[in-house]
Design goal:
mainly beta; seven-stranded mixed sheet
């Protein structure tokens, strides 16, 4: 029953902003680190941004200064605000979270992915 549901994504022009969000749902005991990954055709999946339960963040060098990850623990949401988008940012973006269900062990969960296309 635990799942991550993403929203956002779409077509945006270079230089534009685009926000992504991801909601965790289900009977959850706790949520640890959360993050955003992306995968472009023919390339490996890469970590874009991560955030710990305590709020510490890390970013891929390619997005530093442009993207911001944040979370709302009460709402069980993680966000990715993407700014100054480039064509190279085009990829499928996936939400990830380490979640411990009420009755179970912690493991990583993944969203379904959302397409972000940066093009004019």
């Amino acid at each position: 029953q635990v799942q991550l549901v993403e929203s956002g994504g779409g077509l945006v022009q270079p230089g534009g902003p685009l926000p992504l969000s991801c909601a965790a749902s289900g009977i959850i005991f706790s949520i640890g680190a959360m993050g955003w990954y992306r995968q472009a055709p023919g390339k490996q999946r890469e970590l874009v941004a991560g955030i710990t339960s305590g709020g510490n963040t890390n970013y891929a060098n390619s997005v530093k200064g442009r993207f911001t990850i944040s979370r709302d623990n009460a709402k069980r949401l993680v966000y990715l605000q993407m700014n100054i988008l480039k064509p190279d940012d085009t990829a499928v973006y996936y939400c990830n979270a380490n979640i411990r269900p009420l009755s179970g062990n912690s493991r990583d969960y993944w969203g379904q992915g959302t397409q972000v296309t940066v093009s004019s």
